[in-house]
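Project standup — Tuesday

K.O.: blocked on the structure for the chain from last sprint. Re-posting the sequence here as requested.
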Amino acid sequence: MVRTIERKQKYKSGTYIRQINAHSRKTINEYRLDSPKGQELFEILKYKHHLSQKLESYKLAYTKKTGHKPMQISSEIPNLLRFSNFHNNDIEFYNTLIHEQGFQDFGESDRKLEHNGMHFTSKLEMNVAEILENLDLDYKHEPKIQLGIKGKYSDFFVGISMINYCFPIEVAGLLEKSDYFLKLNQDISRYIESGYLFDHDLLLIGETRFHQYNSNKVVRIICNFINNRVADALEAAGINELH
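H.V.: unblocked you, prediction finished:
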């Protein structure tokens, strides 16, 4: 796959969008902006701009929090970052998961809330989906996985392509209810028996009506979890210093 740069160009005859090879800097194609292909490339350009702005925000937040400049990671490093764990936490496994499998199998049932065409059982679960989107994380909602001899509809699976890693998130909003808490413990036990290490391969976001999370706390929980997994990947790959 050739990495490209998209640029808008204005001529007397109208506005065009040019697709440039990122390595050779040679023009690959040029299309009128109002053409179907031009609009497709313009959407890519807007998304790249969005990611660039998000990255700058992350860099500023990192510097403010740590007092250091963000690490520079060369393009070759992601190819070295590979977990050697069991197969149920790599991107190949993630790609086999089916988004919204729970809804496809059971319909609306108790999924009364809707966001971006997805159906949720709780406001906390819906909020987690919104947060994952705001963090630009790739995820699948309610995919079905196999835990032992039984199937399990995970609330979320998040894929981190750069480190060839994915992980489930279980969202529990009724922890003060004993029957709900018991079922959650059984589910976590099944995860552990299937090779998922709690708080390493599995993230739990839970609350009670007495102790509720706001969005900022959930963001920190998710980001801290991912940051730790990236650090694990760097260590596993023998990468200690980044330049």
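K.O.: great, moving the ticket to review. The chain has a mean pLDDT of 84. DSSP finds seven helices and eleven strands in the chain.
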